[in-house]
Amino acid sequence: MTIWNLGSINADFVYSVPHIPASGETLASTGRKLFLGGKGANMSVAAARAGAHVRHLGAVGVDGRWAVERLLEYGVDTRGIAEIETETAQAIIAVDAKGENAIILHPGANAAIPEDRLDMLVEAEPGDSFVFQNETNLQADGAAAARARGLRVVYAAAPFDAAAVAAVLDQLDLLILNEVEAEQLRQATGQGPDDLPVRDVIVTLGAEGATWFGPDGPAHVAAVKVTPVDTTGAGDTFSGYLLAGLDRGMPMKQAMGQAMRAAALMVTRHGTADVIPDLAEVQAFRP
């Protein structure tokens, strides 16, 4: 089967800092690196490295050709990525010595994906998956088009916006949130993860693992204990590996367990899409 990803593509400028800067504070970085990033690109790379066939739908500027080439190198089908006049999206990421981060996003081409990218869904088949995040345009249109073709529709609802979630809830088969986002959605809608009109909801809990709210009630999967050096992209790695596992027919808890191992290995590395582990590394990982 195929995972169709309406996803962001960023140039990630990662700065190592002694601590996350406070308001008005100026810090000198101790290092700077450029990575391929964006929640969409990260998920595409993770799913591809987990063995899935991934078709990425998105956009870059002329300055982003390197990003498309790198996605292709990592096994992602890039025929759905348009090159447009708007500059490629950027992320400025500060990472401290404990692995925590602060991120500034410039949306660029991610907010101007041409509508004709969704026309490629005519090639999708029932049983394929469609995933999207809140870093691009065309979210509601993409979800509706995927639903109409019988795809599994998945929303990784970050960066979180309650209105964006509400606009697509009736189209979703799987919603992925972190603990803070789940609480924000509860405050906005009055509905907790087990009340939402979505068959499967997964709430990630960082170092505490993740809880699946499904047809048989909540089920928890513990995290793999490691010492993190950089948490950037861990959630995207989890989501990509989760979708790849489900695409191969894994039961939800088994897919979550494999995704937990991938995310744990990811946080022991500095960087984003370029350092997402492949399936062999995840299977061999012994923390």
Q: Describe the main β-sheet briefly.
A: 9 strands, mixed
- Low-pLDDT segments, ≥5 res: none
CATH topology: UDP-N-acetylmuramoyl-L-alanine:D-glutamate ligase
CATH architecture grouping? 3-Layer(aba) Sandwich
Oligomer: single chain
The first-level CATH class is given as Alpha Beta
User: How many domains?
Assistant: 1
State mean pLDDT (0 to 100 scale): 95
Question: Distance N terminus to C terminus?
Answer: 31 Å
Task: Characterise this structure.
With 287 residues, this protein is of the alpha/beta class. It has one domain (2-21, 31-282): Ribokinase (UDP-N-acetylmuramoyl-L-alanine:D-glutamate ligase), CATH 3.40.1190.20. It is built from eight helices and 13 strands. The protein has helices spanning 39-49, 65-73, 139-148, 162-168, 179-189, 234-247, 252-266, 279-284; strands at 2-6, 10-16, 31-37, 53-60, 77-83, 89-95, 101-106, 129-133, 152-156, 174-178, 200-204, 210-214, 217-221. The strands form two sheets. It has a nine-stranded mixed beta sheet. Strand 4 (53-60), helix 2 (65-73) and strand 5 (77-83) form a beta-alpha-beta unit. Helix 1 (39-49) crosses helix 6 (234-247), helix 4 packs across helix 5 (179-189) and helix 6 (234-247) runs antiparallel to helix 7 (252-266). The longest helix is centred in the C-terminal third of the chain and has 15 residues, at 252-266. The model has no long low-confidence stretch (mean pLDDT 95).
